[in-house]
Amino acid sequence: MSKRCTEGPCLVCLISAGELVWTHGRYLLPALAALLALLVYLANRRTRPHPASAPQDAEAVVRRQEAMEASRRRMQREQDAKAAVFREKRKQQEEEKRRQKIEEWDSMQLGKSFKGASGPLRNRDEGAPSGSAAKPKSDKKPLRSSEYSPLSGEGGGSCSWRPARRGPSSGG
């Protein structure tokens, strides 16, 4: 359709470029803005050296590594001390459990309760009369009256059927 421009920008090329911007400008503007932002980012990154790539003093690096190693050793010693305390506590707990089991076994062999001497068994062993070990009378009132029946629907139960509210539902 159009001839090729060899001598520079001609009127036909400028018109077709203008039509391109006019028809597709809403796509070209964000694309150009993104391209500009990318170029600025890459230019800043290229001019600013990375801290890891900066030349470092060898003695400073060695001192920093030695300090880190000393800190690691100190933290490991602290952790080892905590672990030793924990192991000691656990060992004492296991020893206490073992001692209690032995006591329970011995008391069971003697006819006592194996969960420790209970009141009635202890009283009998100490020579107290068996009549004094009677249960005290309970003064508790029942939780519901004797007339209560869950099938009758009476009796003051808190759960009962209620008719639905009038009007539109309050759904969401």
Task: Give a description of the structure.
The protein is mainly alpha-helical and 172 residues long. Helices cover 56% and strands 0% of the residues. The longest helix has 52 residues.
Topology:
Elements: H1 11-47, H2 58-109, H3 119-125
Summarize the structure.
The chain is an all-alpha fold and 172 residues long. The chain has helices at 11-47, 58-109, 119-125. It is flat and about 125 Å long.
How far do the termini sit from each other? Answer: 63 Å
SS-based class? mainly alpha
Residue fraction in strands: under 5%
Estimated radius of gyration? 46 Å
Q: Averaged pLDDT, please?
A: 78
Shape: flat
Largest sheet: none
Task: State the helix count.
Answer: 3
Helix content: 55-70%
Compressed to H and E, one letter per element, the order equals: HHH
Could you name the ranges where pLDDT drops below 50 across 5 or more consecutive residues?
116-125
Counting DSSP E segments of at least 2 residues, the number of strands comes to 0
